[in-house]
Description:
The structure holds two protein chains of two kinds.
Chain A: H1 2-13, H2 15-50, E1 56-60, E2 71-72, H3 73-81, E3 85-98, E4 101-109, H4 114-118, E5 120-124, E6 135-139, H5 140-145, E7 153-156, E8 159-168, H6 172-175, E9 178-181, H7 182-188, E10 194-195, E11 197-202, H8 208-218, E12 222-226, H9 227-233, H10 235-268, H11 271-279, H12 284-319, H13 333-350, H14 352-359, H15 363-368
Helix pairs in contact in A: 1-12, 2-9, 2-10, 2-12, 2-13, 10-12, 10-13, 10-14, 12-13, 12-14
Chain B: E1 11-22, E2 27-38, E3 42-46, H1 53-60, E4 68-73, E5 76-77, H2 84-91, E6 92-95, H3 107-118, H4 122-135, H5 151-163, E7 169-173, H6 181-198, E8 201-206, H7 209-212, E9 217-222, E10 225-231
Parallel strand pairs in B: 3-8, 3-9, 6-7, 7-8
Antiparallel strand pairs in B: 1-2, 1-4, 4-5, 9-10
Amino acid sequence: MIFLKLILTNLLRHRIRSFISIAGIAFSVAAMLTIVTILQGAVGMFSGLLSSDSEIIVFERNVSDLFFSNVPADAVQQIGAWQIVQHADPVLFGIVSSLDHPIITCFGITPNDARLRNATWQQGTRASFGQHDDDVVLGERAAEFLSAHLGDHVAIGHGTFHVIGIIKTANGFEDGGVFMPLASAQAFFHKENSSSVITVKLRNKDDTAAFKTMVKGKFKTLIALEDEEFTRSYSQFKILKATAWAVGGCGLLLGGLGVANTMIMSVFTRIREIAILRVSGFSNAQIARLIFGESAVVSLLGAVVGLLIGTAFLFVLKSVPALHGYVDVSIQPLIVLIVIVLSFLTGVAGALYPAFYAMRIRAVEALRFE
Amino acid sequence: MSTPTPSSPRIVLQARNIHKSYDDGAIKVLRGVDFEAIEGNTVALCGPSGCGKSTLLHLLGGLDQPDSGDIAVNGVEINRRSNLLHLLRHEIGFVFQLHNLIPDLTLAENCLIPTVAAGIDRQVARDRLHQLTQRTGLSHRLNHRIQKLSGGERQRTALCRALMNKPKILLADEPTGSLDEKTSAAVFELLLELAATEGITLVMATHDRGLAQRCDRLVEMHDGRIRGIGAF
């Protein structure tokens, strides 16, 4: 109890300094939580977009980005005809721009695609999709930022398209996208007779390994991966996640430097007090425990406050209409745990030198000078 | 080092030919000091400022090491001890001119610090605290912060802290040096009384000849040497 009070006393003695240190850690933690959660959410949404009513994705081997993947049309036909396959849907991804909107994701799909089947049709019907080359269906958010309604003609990229439906989906990417008939998208993006990926659903999930072997044997340029496998191995996701953690880590490093500064000041301003503890029989380990305890309190308080700030910030982001569907506020317990552990380790690292310094304080020298 | 016999008084502190200097030998503080303290005795170290009284106390308590010479506490040489912490935790208590209490803690918490260091049972420590604060007249001040205490009360608190772990030796460096005459006399009386009732060997550095004469022995120091030893 007294040991704990010795730790807390020093923090309370310099309230402003302690507050600044806790705030430093808190903002770092909040930044890390926000960035990582948003990116995890984005990755989750992109994965969900690929795995819409499917469990396997087939795409061109060794491409760095699915936008560059080319899957020949005959591969779609052949795979769709395999006995073990329930359905195989080609999807062509493309990016275009329109006035004021530099990036709009386009999906070239067939009328039977699960995205259209599972969506809530706010305007128009699925039956009209694919009847004319210039027909498009807009996601709810895309319709909003393009100010488009059913029957309007909208300029997208170098073309003008007729809006035959507006749909709402649970996926932010889809909600902000434009859905074109596959053939129109192939022509528009100059990718005749090919798609970016094939999303595949098997009749029996136990045939997954056999399916992958068949794809490998039949199509040398293609690769089949289960959705989870794809999410794990896709280099873009890896880069995004690594970037998120790196940015968050840099923030935490800055917070850690703040803790180090606080702890150094803390030790310097109470050299005499530490000397008295030594004279009272405190060992090096006990002195170090005081310093580490102090930094642990700062970093853990910072982590808790940071988690609260980060969560609140995510909820605010989620309520912004323009970001609807892009921000996933479901904070994973693993991320919370990692953030807390990282902030704790940062605090401990920040206290290493101060603790080392405190352990080297010689009572006799500290007490000699009044 | 001498070995005590049942009939002879037991020597609890012994220093032989102690030399100590600072700044790579530029400042010689102790020049061949021999010193002994017998169990239960009170010894006053007197001498002008800078004569080496405090340095000798620090060396006797294991807070510093001599350049040469031997120091034994309770018959065991300090430099042969594997655990100097035991010395500070259980065998020796220190009182300084300044009380050196932690201002943000209460009187009780300050006193309990040595028991935390030594890992003494909480209830045992509490009992000891009540015993000492009653004897020093501080029992009504237990939960008061140090800022609220008078100078005399602070020094009595420092005395309680030094005695918490029942050391057999108390080293006091000008313990009344920062107090007024009246308070100084009261604190000194208390010091002597506690030393007597607890059977403590007291070694005290002081400028005050009047107080020094109340001790069993007077050790006169000058320029890093023992100039004379007298018994009262």
